[in-house]
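Good morning C.,

I know you're traveling, so I'll keep this short. The sequence:
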Amino acid sequence: MYSATSAPLPPPPLCSQGHLSNLILPTAEGGSICLLCLSNLLSNPNSPTVHVSYALSQLFQALSQPLFLRNFLTFHSHFLISPLVSVLSNFDDEPIAKQTIDLIVNICEASNNHSEYNHDVYKEFVAAVSDRLSSGSLAWSRRQLYMLHCLGVLLDSQENSHYACIKDTDSLVLNLVTGLQLASEEIQGEIMFVLYKISLLQYTYMDGHCVDVLFPRCPKLLHLSLEALVKTQSDDVRLNCVAFLTVLARRGFFQSACANYLGCRDALEADNIMQTTESTMDGSPLEVLFAEAVKGPLLSSDSQVQIATLDLILVYLSCDGGSGKVQVLVEENLADYIFEILRLSGCKDSVINSSILILDVLSTAEQAFRQRLAIGFTTLVSVLRYVADIPFHPVQCQSLKLISNCVSNCPGIISTSQFEEISTILAGMFKKHVDGEIGMLQETFTLSCSTFVVLMKCSFSLGNSSLSASIRDALKSATSNCLTMHPEHILHSLYLLKEAYAYADEDNLTISTNKGLKYFILEICKLQILPWFVTTINEIEEEDIVLGVIETFHSILLQDSDTEARNFTDILISSSWFSVLFGCLGLFSTEKMKWRVYLMFSSIVDLLLGSDYGQPIRDAAPHLPSDPTDLLFLLGQKTSHNVELVCCQSAVLLILYISSLYNDRIADDRLVLASLEQYILLNSSEFFSGSTASVTLELLVNLYGLYRGFAKMSYQIPYSPEAERILFQLLAENDWDSLSTRIHLTSLKWLFQQEKLCKSLSKQMLKLCINNSIGNYIVPYGKTSQSVDLQVIAELISFGDNFGAMILVCLLGELVEDANQEHDIISVVNAITKIIEIAPVASDQLCMYGIGGVLQNINYGSNFRFPEVFSSTTPLVFSILRSVHSESISNDEAWVGITIKSMDYMISMVAADGWTEEGLIILLILSLVLYHSTNQAMTQASKIILLSAPLVSIINNSVSEACSKGPALLDHDEGTKTGEILISVLSLLFFSLRSAQAILPGMVDFRNLLDEGCEIQPLSYVSIRGHDLCKLMHFGSPPVKLIASFCLLQIFTGISDHRSRNQVHLKFRTGYLSSMRAVLEGLIFYSDIRVSANCSQCLSTLMTWKEVEIESIASVKNSWCRLIIEELVMSLATPSVTSNSSMIQHKPAVNIAISLLKLDQIPPWMTTVFDDSSIVSVIQNISPNNVSTELVLLFRELLNSGYLKPEHIADLNRVFQACRRHLYTNEIQDTGAEGHKEKTCENLDDLGKARAFLISLMTQSFPYIDHRRSPSWKKQLLEEIELFSKRLMEDEAG
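The tokens, ready to paste straight into the viewer:
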């Protein structure tokens, strides 16, 4: 057949068997192959297998040669088809079968690849092999296996266009189905593959009229396939079987088999394949068999088998067949296998996707699946963690759904760590979505929100701070996402927000952090959703979104009635919420929208006014129109005992009332006022008959007062005098109380401007005062500007254009005239005191209406238990005197009586019990009376105080007792009883010195207070000796030093004023003044700038008294005075201590230096101190920011004294010029407060606050202490600089 030669020869004419040369094909090696000999060899079943194998290998090799292949395909492509097929059926030899199949495939591929040759080779091979299989002649031997494998390879390796080559499909399928009954796994695997390929080819290329050859054998074929899958342990067989079943499932075989269950069962029993009765299983045997069949492949180590099986299950479940098969699969524990695959999947998408989709379908069998879901919950959490990080992952929704089902149905199996992990994952999904890291389908967003809600509704979620934090993050991200990028998600975001608030409200008692969660949710509503809704309402096209926002806000109001919810309500209405909701009614005029809007209105009314106040709106909602103008039309109708109309009108009044409180004008002011007047005019008979509810009357009064107030401000809105007359008559005949409701300040002001209502308002004021005295405010609905309390009354009185102050004064006067009204008097007095504390300007109004006379009547009333009533009036008197302007005090006689009674009460109290807090307060009141006398008010009362002998005695005793303590006095500050008494006494002494100088100029001579010769004579008026003040300044505590220095300065100032006016000669003993000077000099460097400034001012004053011996002050021996000046110069020349605050501290020493420079004989040591280098250093160290009036004055005196050189003057001019520029451009800031800070009164009691106030009055009497606190300090500084410049010009002119 084949011979090798050393050189190529022409093909032999004949082979060794004498066959014709046209059947002999030469090879490239020089040999040849006789196709006829080859055919005979292959077709003979008795041929030696060695020869057959060798021949096949030589042919395979020759086909790889282009010339041989071309000749073979051109002339003999069909010649070997039958012999090659015969090899498969003749020889039970696996290697030969493999060679043959490879050769057949090679020939088919070569034929297809060379288009110029015959294309029927593949078809003939398929036909030949299928015919052999269809005939059943091989009786399922090993040779049949090779034939099956060859057909499978042919069908798998070629184009799927030759299904028609199989001539007898029915017989083929019948034999294949029969072969499935064999126990051989190899045969079953090959049959499955062939059936799989045949089914694919048939379903792909047959037309609609062709008959499905597999369908008639549907039940048997399915059962055989499933049984084979159950029994096999081969992954190859499993893969083929699963692929075939998948195709059958897609073709609806399972549905058909289940429908014909009884017939299938009979057929199977006849074939003795499977003996099963319905009584032994749930569902059909096929469903149970399917569940058992897929378990093995699911546990396979081959991932391809697992994935194919998962796809089969998914296709099987997606086919129509009812919920029965789902129930069977769950009961057969298929879910457990799926969870196990997921656990071991290593987060492979191909496994996760199919598994989750299957579990999603299985979850429809809720009861049976619930237990399985609980077992695999841990695996689901890990899957959720994976899919949550992948944008648009195909099973995100299903994973969330499964998690949500498990949490809601099996909360007990979830651990705290899993619970927190799920919430963290969900919050992370929202955040990544907002940040743009991942995308999210709308369904995923919806399920994420609902899963969060399920988590919140679990019982063990209460008290979980981690969940609260995750909710906060999720709400922040979800809301931001909806309002900025995806408005289509807004409804689900609102649902999450609403449920989160309910969760926070329910958990409020369990964990304090949820109060923060509630606050956070309200902040989202206030700062994000509400502004977005108000600004975009006209652009929203979906009614559901509008309803969603309204319902969310409404649910917050319904769930909570605490301060935060009321604050949220205030913010809603302040954002024109009523107008916005009426706008919603205009955009969506549906019954659902109208009902929701009016329910919202009613809840707002309930929250602001009290429970059930909004019931009229709920009752009238079906009858109320959507347009506010139509609401006003209802209000202008006559009720005629129409219950529905009465209810509607009450609802309209409530809506107008609440909206008007927040200046939300839902209709034109003219229309509202006209409707109110029409309502009054048409229904006046109803009002007077008493059939109108008191609440309606109060609403009407408040609304009418408001819109009359608006009309008064605009001067363009007419009103009906008749309606006003009817209303006033109605109010006079009925009990009404607008002060017990929330009322607009404009309405309240208008009511208090009506003189005809003063009597009624007086009764309401009394009620307000009584409730205030027992700590029970009238309006418990929240602190807003419309709640009528003492704060509102104080503001009202401070306006001054109403009868508020008069009503209070008349009310108190009426109570005083009536007997046995002590408690009411005390309540009103305490209320007035509080009002003055809130609005000090109210004291002017009260004094103008005669509060002094009423207080006098209280003090002299014989019907009262004096101590209690008097004690309540003492704080009021002090508050009035500390707040009132002196020019507002008109009735001096009344204040004389008050002063006498108070002073007598205090003196008797001190005599009996010593000093008490009340007695000290009265002492401070007397100080304030004296203070006002300096402004020519209360002069007669002040004279009585000054000349009261008992008072003088008490004051002298108190001073003597304090002075006798000596150094121990330092320990008696304001925290001790002695300190309190001494500070109060010294305050009275200071103001008595000022008052005596103002109102008793001819009777007092302050020189006597410094004259030793008069020490043996008692003082005839309230005053103090100079030497006692020096003792107190030297030994006293800081407050005592301060007030005593003020008193001494006042004495020195009074003596200087008397000396300048009367040209009197002063004569004091030198030693006496020297001791006083020593005390003053010692306090120049005291820490309190006010004390040191007072002492420096006293020393400066001493130096101006030329007739007094003062050589000791300026002498060389006075080292202390020189030390003061040297310390001053050194400080001014040091750069680090020339800030504004340090300049203030230097003022006392600067004053001393100026006074020394003004002396006729300047101490010689001044030249040494102010030498050239020192002056240069000081000038270099000052800047425009720290120049003070005293510093400019010092340089002017140095200039006058000849201490400044031309270069000094030039440098100063530059500094002063820069200072002018800064002053004119306001670049110098007010930093003078650094020098001394007043003691805050926050932690002081009433007596401490009163003393602090009097000290502030003393400081104001001498503004030189800190000139930068004076509003004219810039002007004073500029004037002083100008004087310096003029002095220079005078020198230059001279």
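Safe travels,
E.
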